[in-house]
Amino acid sequence: MVRVLSGIALGAPTLLVVWSAPPVLFLWLVVVVALCAAWEFQGLIAHCGWAGVRWEGTLDVGLLILSFWAGGLTPGVALTFIILRILVRSMNTSDRKAGLAGAGVSVLGLLWVGGAGSLVVLIRLVDSGREAIVFLFAVVWANDIAAYYVGRAVGIRKLAPSISPGKTVEGALGGLVAGAVVGLALAGWLEIAGMGRGWALAAALILGGLSQVGDLCESFVKRAAEKKDSGTGIPGHGGVLDRIDGLLLAAPPFYYFLRWIAAG
Q1: pTM score > 0.90 for this model?
Q2: Which region holds residue 41: left if phi is over 0, alpha if psi is between -120 and 50, else beta?
Q3: What residues form DSSP beta bridges with 246?
Q4: Residues near 138 by Cβ (< 8 Å), separated by ≥ 6?
Q5: Which of 35, 46, 50, 141 is most solvent-facing, going by the fewest CB within 10 Å?
């Protein structure tokens, strides 16, 4: 029940901002969420023993997202500056191998959290961007919720026991079905440029599969850090990174999918 209530408490205001607020307010919502997720990621890699400065890695993510919003040459300049900062930082460590490993993981976090956040912001700016964001969030959330509850109710076969023992094949299939149903239902209500029911079904299945892989990726990081959750800020869910891990892998391909079908 706590999981459901906290999910509603977070999901309802988020959808309200997506649907009713101007894009710039949505930008700042994404930035705040990404900063929290990046802070948690930096904490996890610190537990893995990799060198890094937590607040620097967090601010890098915010800078990358804002640079994509600004557009033009800004993303390239920002990315160059960030990579240079990470490499210089790694050279100042006493253990060169640990410094190099830390630099690599820092770039991973930058692209994983910051890159996904940047493209979520850009989705809001495409034709029917508001509707596309609702579609993305609803499909990923439906997949996550159904996978959790179906897995608990009838799950038997483990999906990836060495990474996330609680996830089951039955739960994963239940999540894909739920996401597909929600995607088809929304396709009949939302008008997303270039997306009919066939494209909506394909997108929902792909997004569902990617969100589950994203969940496993974050579980892998937590397993390496020997942590159950990325944080404790969301009752019943853990941290912010725990809540958005599926979106981080699903959002980037969805952005390019929208651009492709719109161009076609």
Answers
A1: yes
A2: alpha
A3: none
A4: 182, 183, 186
A5: 46
